[in-house]
Design goal:
By secondary structure, this protein is of the alpha/beta class. 33% of the residues lie in helices and 22% in strands. The strands form three sheets. Strands 7-8-9-10-11-12 form a six-stranded mixed beta sheet. It has a three-stranded mixed beta sheet with strand order 1-3-2. Residues 66-135 form the POTRA domain.
Length: 264
C-alpha cells in the first residue's frame, strides 16, 4: 500500500481586495442612517412642540375663552331670574371653553331659585347655551299665619315664590295644614289639567287626598274630582259632559267615578 503525506501550505496569504465602489456604498449607507436618525429626532421634537403649541392654544390662550356677553339663557319662564344665572356663568369669564367644567357649572346653575333642570352646552368659539326648565307655579296656598299672603308652589310642591294675592290664572288651594299627601294629590291633578281648563279653575279644596274639588272662576260650576287617579280619563269625561246639551246649566260635575259621572 502506498502512503501519501499531505503537507500544509505555508506560503504568504494575499489580503482580500475591497473595491472602491464597495467602500463608497458603505459610506453612503452610513450617511443615510445618520440622516434618518436626525430626521427622526427633528420630527419628534417638532411633534412635541406642535402638541405643546396646540395645548397652549386650546387650554391657555384667549382664542377660545368664554365671553359672558355670548351666553344665551333659555327656558327661564316666569320664576327664574336670568341675571342670577348669568352671574353664575360670569365667574368663569376668560376660561377657555375646552377647560370649562360644564357639569360643575350646571350644578351651580341648579342652585339658582326656581331652576328645576339645567343643561350647559358649549357654543364655540366663545359662548355657552344654558337651557333651563323652570319651576312654574301651579297653585297658591295660604300661609299659616292669618293675612300672611300666599305661597306659590310648583307641581312638585316646591315653593317658588310668595304673593299677596293669587296671580292671574293660578288657583288658590285649600288643604289641611301640613297634610302633604293631600297637597300632593291636588298638585298632581292641577299639573295634568289642560292649559285652558286650568285657567278656569279659581280654587281647589280637599280634606283628604280622595276628595279633591275644584271651583271654576266667575261663579262657574263646581267639579268634584275625587282622587288623582285616572285623571286623563276624568278630563275626557268632563270635557264631554260640559259640551253636551243635556248638561247645559249644570252647576256640579261629579267625575270622581269617571265611568258613572253625575251632573246636577
Amino acid at each position: 500500500m502506498t502512503t501519501y503525506t499531505v503537507g500544509r501550505f505555508s506560503g504568504p496569504v494575499r489580503p482580500a481586495v475591497v473595491s472602491t465602489t464597495s467602500r463608497e456604498r458603505f459610506a453612503e449607507r452610513a450617511r443615510a442612517r445618520r440622516n434618518l436618525a436626525r430626521r427622526q429626532v427633528v420630527g419628534s421634537a417638532a411633534a412635541v412642540v406642535g402638541v405643546g403649541a396646540l395645548g397652549w392654544l386650546l387650554l391657555v390662550s384667549p382664542v377660545l375663552a368664554l365671553d359672558p356677553t355670548q351666553v344665551e339663557v333659555s327656558g327661564a319662564g316666569t320664576v327664574v331670574a336670568v341675571d342670577q344665572v348669568l352671574a353664575v356663568v360670569a365667574d368663569r369669564s376668560g376660561t377657555p371653553l375646552p377647560r370649562l367644567d360644564t357639569v360643575r357649572l350646571r350644578d351651580e346653575v341648579l342652585e339658582v331659585p326656581g331652576v328645576r333642570e339645567a343643561r350647559v352646552v358649549r357654543d364655540w368659539p366663545h359662548g355657552l347655551a344654558v337651557q333651563l326648565v323652570s319651576r312654574e307655579p301651579v297653585a297658591a296656598v295660604p300661609e299659616e299665619a292669618p293675612d300672611a299672603g300666599l305661597v306659590l308652589l310648583d307641581e312638585e310642591g316646591v315653593q317658588v315664590g310668595r304673593a299677596d294675592v293669587a296671580p292671574d290664572g293660578l288657583p288658590v288651594v285649600d288643604v289641611p295644614l301640613g297634610d302633604q299627601r293631600t297637597l300632593a294629590a291636588v298638585l298632581s291633578v292641577l299639573e295634568q289639567l289642560p292649559v285652558d281648563l286650568l285657567a278656569q279653575v279659581g280654587s281647589v279644596a280637599a280634606r283628604t287626598q280622595d276628595t279633591v274639588t275644584m271651583q271654576l272662576r266667575d261663579g262657574g260650576a263646581r267639579i268634584d274630582w275625587g282622587s288623582a287617579d285616572e285623571t286623563p280619563l276624568k278630563i275626557a269625561v268632563l270635557t264631554a259632559l260640559r259640551s253636551a246639551p243635556e248638561a247645559a246649566g249644570a252647576t256640579v260635575f261629579d267625575v270622581s267615578a269617571p265611568r258613572m259621572p253625575i251632573t246636577r
